[in-house]
Specification:
The longest helix has 22 residues. The chain has seven helices and seven strands; from the N terminus they run H-E-E-H-E-H-E-E-H-E-E-H-H-H. By secondary structure, it is of the alpha/beta class. Helices cover about 40% and strands about 10% of the residues. The strands form two sheets. Strands 4-6-1-5 form a four-stranded mixed β-sheet, with helices on one face. It is found in: Membrane. Its main location: membrane. Pfam families: Glyco_transf_49 (PF13896).
């Protein structure tokens, strides 16, 4: 409730039109098909403590959202900066003129990860909003995630695209892009 207005206010207060920043909206999830949506952060925290909500994908893919630093978010009252980490794929609000999603990554796999890497390479600040949140509701698996899980060929193609993406980052950003390749190889 009120997320749209909060985002508009945050965009103005943080001078997003004049600043290279990505505003992170922390993501949570429920395993229930019905949910009384929390009307406030305090309500959300209560639901989190009771176990009816979880930080997004914590049990399947914690690396995707862990850099949001949910422990800090619980008590934050002002936006705070987080650092890029491998496989980080938060939901963000950015300026229209930010880098676009790489069209190689359609379907399932690496669309948000590559986008955040590109933003980081261009020195965007990654700012977590203290009073924003979204909740993912359960749904049937997509056709594309099923292909990813069942097809070695799909996973192999995705790996090839990831390697091409790293090469492109290296060409565009030089030595600054080495951290992405190093992080990828250490996983």
């Amino acid at each position: 409730y009120g997320l749209y207005d909060y985002l508009r206010t945050s965009i103005q207060q943080l001078e997003l039109p004049q600043r290279k920043a990505a505003l992170i909206v922390p993501a949570f999830e429920t395993l229930h098909y019905r949910l009384t949506f929390p009307k406030s952060k305090a309500e959300l925290l209560s639901m989190l403590d009771m176990g009816s909500l979880y930080t997004f994908r914590y049990h399947v893919w914690p690396k995707g959202h862990a850099p949001t630093d949910y422990a800090k978010w619980r008590t934050a009252t002002v936006p705070y900066r987080v650092a890029w980490q491998p496989d980080f794929e938060p939901y963000v609000v950015v300026r229209r003129d930010c880098p676009r999603y790489d069209q190689r990554f359609v379907g399932f796999g690496w669309n948000k990860v590559s986008h955040i890497m590109e933003l980081d390479a261009q020195e965007y600040e990654l700012l977590v909003l203290p009073n924003a949140f979204m909740i993912h509701m359960p749904h049937a698996p997509s056709f594309d995630i099923s292909k990813f899980r069942l097809s070695a060929g799909y996973r192999s193609c995705l790996q090839t695209l990831r390697e091409e993406f790293h090469q492109d980052l290296s060409r565009r950003y030089g030595a600054a892009a080495l951290k992405y390749l190093t992080a990828e190889r250490s996983l």
